[in-house]
Structure formats: structure tokens, C-alpha cells
Specification:
By secondary structure, the protein is mainly alpha-helical. It has one domain. It is built from three helices and no strands. It holds the Pfam family Mito_carr.
């Protein structure tokens, strides 16, 4: 079975976006929690936040909400890779650059 060539960049973008989001999600979660704590400081430092989340929520606490982020990033990155490859091919055929 042959994959439609134009789908390869789309699927590659979806996979790349999912992987990148999964790897960086704990850092994004920490950034979000620090931004939302306001004047009532829940976390005093980065190490305090990491230890508190790990203790109270477990390792899964660092990935809470990952599913919705991946659902959002997959079509975005798929379309971005697809568009890039399509425009690159068009420019090559037209010999614009």
C-alpha cells in the first residue's frame, strides 16, 4: 500500500508536534502554575514546585492536560509541515530563488 505523498509531511508534522509537546510539557505546566499563583504564593521556587507536584500528584501530575495540548498541536503542526513542503516544491518548480 502506497501512502499519498502529500500526506507524509502532514503525518510527520503531527508526530513531531506530539513528541515535542510531550517532552516539553512538564516545563510548560510549571510555567503556567507559576503564572497563575498570583499574590498567594503556592510555590517558593522551582525545586519546591517540582517536589510538591511530584509528592501530591505523582509523576502524572506533570502531564495533567497533555491530551488537550496534543489534540491542539497535531493539526497545527501537520498543516505547517504540509504547507512548507507544498510551497517549497512550488518555489523549486518556478525557480523563484
Amino acid at each position: 500500500m502506497q501512502v499519498i505523498p502529500s500526506l507524509k509531511p502532514f503525518v510527520s508534522g503531527m508526530i513531531a508536534g506530539s513528541f515535542a509537546t510531550t517532552v516539553t510539557y512538564p516545563f510548560d505546566l510549571l510555567r503556567t502554575r507559576f503564572a497563575l499563583q498570583g499574590t498567594n504564593k503556592v510555590y517558593n521556587s522551582l525545586s519546591h514546585a517540582v517536589l510538591d507536584i511530584a509528592e501530591k500528584e505523582g509523576i502524572g501530575g506533570f502531564y495533567r492536560g497533555l491530551g488537550s495540548s496534543i489534540t491542539q498541536i497535531m493539526p497545527y503542526m501537520g498543516l505547517m509541515f504540509f504547507s512548507y513542503e507544498g510551497l517549497y516544491s512550488l518555489i523549486q518548480r518556478l525557480k523563484v530563488f
